[in-house]
Amino acid sequence: MTAGINVHEAEIAKFGGKAHDWWNPRGELKTLHAVNPLRVNFIREHAKLAGSVAVDVGCGGGILTEGLADAGAAALGIDLSEQVLDAARQHAQARALAVNYRCISVEALAREQPGAFDVVTCMEMLEHVPDPDSIVRSCTQLVRPGGKVFFSTLNKKLKSYLLAIVAAEYLLRMIPRGTHQFDTFIRPSELCGYARAAGLSLLDLRGISYHPLWDRFELSDDLDVNYLAAFERPLD
Ligand code: SAH
Question: 93 CB contacts (<8 Å, ≥6 apart)?
């Protein structure tokens, strides 16, 4: 961890190395492509994106950030990898899509623009940082009172170990080996605890389930592996 910054440099380098392949729907990040419509739908169930100001934290190459922009949000994506941000900028530019990208930590952006966003998203990122609690607190500082905050991450269960690591990384090769470490997974109760302590109220928890027979993902009530959470910052 770089002094004072909530980041694992090895994780940033690992994702940076995938930047060239980020937008390949059949490449290493194919599961992010596959689940993106589900994530955008979940967000739209709880937040009005058209005309909103949104920030996507740990945006990578911008798969979700572009989804927010396509749904009508003025979207900013932030990440600590310049390589993934370059891929994100190039892709948005090729589509002539107005999305902004910045290399800044969420903690620093929260100091700079507290309460500036209607919608804050932070997906598949909490399990890659040393201090996820600090990320949740900063996301809370970024959202305006009445605004919505969305997270997704992996649950810490035997089932998530078997499906998200053994099956996804080794048996089915859906994602690259070494993408995830089990001890960084976060139970919904832990995430809700961080969020409650930061001042957020829970709106919804949904699972993202994979059906190997159909090779398809869908939203479900099964929170055991990958799950989405929606929170609201109550009005003051
Ligand atoms: N949220 C995107 C990408 C997930 S991959 C999506 O779901 O489509 C995880 C991303 O988190 C990578 O791009 C990585 O560079 C970024 N990341 C890891 N640690 C970070 C940190 N401390 N601050 C900002 N981004 C971080």
Answer: none
